[in-house]
Amino acid sequence: MDDARDGGQAALPRTVGILGTGRVGTVLARLARDAGLEVHAASSRDDPAAACAAEVVILAVPLGRYRTLPKDLLRGRLVVDAMNYWWELDGARPDLDDPRTSTSETVAAFLDGARVVKAFNHASVWELENLAHPAGHPDRRGLAIAGDDARDRAVVAALVDAMGFDPVDAGPLSAGVMLEPPTDVFGSDATADELRDMLARFPRSQRGRVVARARGEAG
Ligand SMILES: NC(=O)c1ccc[n+]([C@@H]2O[C@H](COP(=O)([O-])OP(=O)(O)OC[C@H]3O[C@@H](n4cnc5c(N)ncnc54)[C@H](OP(=O)(O)O)[C@@H]3O)[C@@H](O)[C@H]2O)c1
Q1: Domain membership flag for residue 22
Q2: Residue 122 CA: which ligand 1 atom is closest?
Q3: Which of 65, 78, 133, 154 is the S-S candidate for 10 at Cβ 3.0 to 4.6 Å?
Q4: Residue 8: inside a domain, yes or no?
């Protein structure tokens, strides 16, 4: 669990697509524009073609609606899953509440052929609105990144960095479970070092033990 940039510096993407123009989509669009990136955002009523053609496409729709995402347009794309299962909003969904599978793996299985990386999900809208700072700022917060391809994680790390947060590499997409509710990381407003500590402690946490039992891993 290193600084995601340790796996190699990646070029910052120039274009970002955002699906979902609610609370999270709106603030992420502003942060990306502030970073000098070209942003194409779309709600469910808009044509998503331009958003889906961007170098990185961020998913910011209610997770319970992931099956409405335009999977054909996202095939082969680098897709950032910023979504969380929120039962008050999404309803009771056993498919999204199974500790054997991170919700990003479920999304990746649906978006067959997309390169899914989990990021931005554990920050609150308030944190994204108020705690984005330039690199080196003493109050900078960290954001964890999980994905199966190190190069894709490095691209998303460059994006996170440009948008005002220190990227922290959490490992493969299955490790995205450490960033979901209910975990210490989720909603923590933590620095990069604090995030690394929380990720290291996850196996000993209550949720970590539930996940390990469900996955048949040694506790
Ligand atoms: N709120 C937070 O603090 C927070 C923080 C981090 C992550 N998240 C996660 O981010 C996601 C969005 O949360 P939110 O608070 O921004 O929700 P929100 O304010 O309800 O916005 C959701 C947006 O998604 C759009 N949408 C739904 N289906 C779509 C589709 N197939 N294609 C394009 N757009 C679609 C909705 O637009 P329509 O009008 O077209 O339906 C709406 O603009 C959720 O998964 C949430 O768990 C939330």
Answers
A1: yes
A2: 6
A3: 154
A4: no
Probe ligand 1: pick from 18, 40, 43, max atoms within 8 Å of CB? 43
Q: In whole angstroms, give the CA distance from residue 72 to residue 94.
A: 26
Q: Count of domains in the chain?
A: 1
Cα distance between residue 148 and residue 128, in whole Å: 25
Q: How far is the CA of 21 from the centre of ligand 1 (A)?
A: 7
Along the 219 residues of the chain, how does pLDDT read in single tens digits?
444 544 567 899 999 999 999 999 999 999 999 999 999 999 999 999 999 999 999 999 999 999 999 999 999 999 999 999 999 999 999 999 999 999 999 999 999 999 999 999 999 999 999 999 999 999 999 999 999 999 999 999 999 999 999 999 999 999 999 999 999 999 999 999 999 999 999 999 999 999 999 999 875
**Helix, coil or strand: residue 59:** strand
Nearest residue CA, atom 37 of ligand 1? 43
- CA–centroid distance, residue 55 to ligand 1 (Å): 20
Determine, yes or no, domain membership for 197: yes
Pocket (CB within 6 angstroms of ligand 1): 19-25, 42-45, 60-63, 65, 68-69, 82-84, 86, 121, 123-125
Return the H-helix or E-strand segment holding 160.
Answer: helix 150-162
- Distance from Cα 43 to the centre of ligand 1, integer Å: 9
Beta-strand relationship, 166-171 and 142-147: parallel
Q: Give 215's DSSP letter.
A: T
**Considering the entire predicted model, what is its pTM?**
0.96
